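Q: My collaborator sent me two sequences in one message, no labels, and asked for predicted structures for both. Can we handle them in order? The first one she listed is below.
A: Yes, handling them in the order given. First sequence, followed by its structure tokens:
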Amino acid sequence: QVQLVESGGGLVQPGGSLRLSCAASGFTFSTSAMRWYRQAPGKERELVARISNTGAITSYADSVRGRFTISRDNAKNTMYLRMNNLKPEDTAVYYCNTPEWEDYWGQGTQVTVSS
């Protein structure tokens, strides 16, 4: 059974940093591209970052490029999102997902950026 478990969220001041983790199981992680999404209150879920199965290729939404870094450790079946210089508009629930099992979602992890 596909499982995705996000963690690492929290309350942080503007300009602060967080690192999110996504622990994956139930599928072959090392051959699967992965994505981070986020959903703010009253807004649609949006794609934040993508990473290829090897980690060699990454892409970012314009709103986070230069501040966020996506990475993965295939030996640990885990993906990460390092978020620097956080802004109030980054406040959202963050989710991980794989396009190979796109109907499966974790519970998400809440990120709140506020002073």
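Q: And the one she listed second?
A: Here it is, processed independently of the first:
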Amino acid sequence: QLQLAEPGGASVQAGGSLRPSCSVSKFFFPTSCRGWFRQAPGKERGGVAVIDSDGRTAYAEPVKGRFTISQNNTERTLYMQMNSLTVDESGTYLCAARLVTLNDRPTWEKLSDYGWWGQGTQVTVSA
């Protein structure tokens, strides 16, 4: 199971920062790829960033340079530092995992590849 460590969500003003976290069961270590996806009302769920067990990362173009995904293998926790947030980046952030690394499958934004999903945490960015 994937469990989010921030139930209840978080709010921040535009330009601010947040750092959601996700606890990941040991089943998904060491070989896997896990990351964050965003679901906004009326919009399709989309990939934000992923990291695999080899430390390789991939980011959606709009967040490059502002978001940093990381993981603590000892704690089995996934993080995503989000800086300079915009109002459009509000939504439910979900962590997810697949059992294929980025090296084996570089394409990472296909939702159906991810068989495990967290419950999601609400992020609200206000103007």
